[in-house]
UniProtKB/TrEMBL annotation:
This is Peptide deformylase. It catalyses: N-terminal N-formyl-L-methionyl-[peptide] + H2O = N-terminal L-methionyl-[peptide] + formate. It comes from [Eubacterium] hominis. Fe cation binds at C112, H156, H160. CDD domains: Pep_deformylase (cd00487).
Length: 186
């Protein structure tokens, strides 16, 4: 299935709030194809020429539920802190096995392919997480020790498995209230 922006389930559709189920490992051919297609969407969406030609909204991550499939699968392509460093994962059944007490957030808030309306505010996340799951790109179980932006992106996508959207985490009374000792990511 070739994914483009019209395939993305928006937050106005209750489907995006569905709980996602674990997938069987080893992955079926159908699940491998789906996970690969999620990865291709994210990767292609970051190439301005392809994104414009194929009607792709830029993304750093996507979860299967965002195309209406309630399976615990996601893909991320996240720039690292070093030049030419990129973190790429196509994960099945990823789970957070540990997280830091220290918080982190994106200075300008988060966005989501499924959310067209603007929701301003700080989205508190853990500054560091350890995620375990099967990575299709490496064809093996992996342990990812993520920090800062990568940690935020992984938490955002894993939240989709429980039907949680980023704006559910924004403080309604004071959306821009800074979090003491948090890592603020520009």
């Amino acid at each position: 299935m070739y994914i483009h922006y019209d395939n993305i389930v928006k937050d106005t559709d209750s489907v995006v709030r569905q709980k996602s189920e674990k997938v069987n490992l080893p992955l079926s051919e159908e699940d491998k194809t789906l996970l690969h297609d999620l990865f291709v969407y994210v990767k292609d969406s970051q190439d301005a020429e392809i994104a414009e030609r194929e009607d792709l909204r830029p993304a750093v991550g996507i979860a299967a539920i965002q195309i209406g499939i309630p399976k615990r699968m996601l893909a991320v392509v996240v720039p690292g802190e070093e030049e030419d460093e990129v973190f790429e994962y196509a994960l099945a059944n990823p789970r957070i096995v540990s997280e830091s007490v220290q918080k982190a957030y994106l200075k300008n808030g988060e966005g989501c392919l499924s959310v067209e309306e603007e929701h301003e505010g700080i989205v508190p996340r853990s500054a560091r997480v350890t995620v375990k799951g099967y990575d299709l790109l490496q064809d093996k179980e992996v342990t990812i020790k993520a920090k800062n932006y990568l940690a935020i992106v992984l938490q955002h996508e894993i939240d989709h498995f429980s039907g949680t959207l980023f704006y559910d985490r924004i403080n309604e009374d004071d959306p821009w209230r800074a979090i003491q000792d948090a890592v603020v990511i520009e």
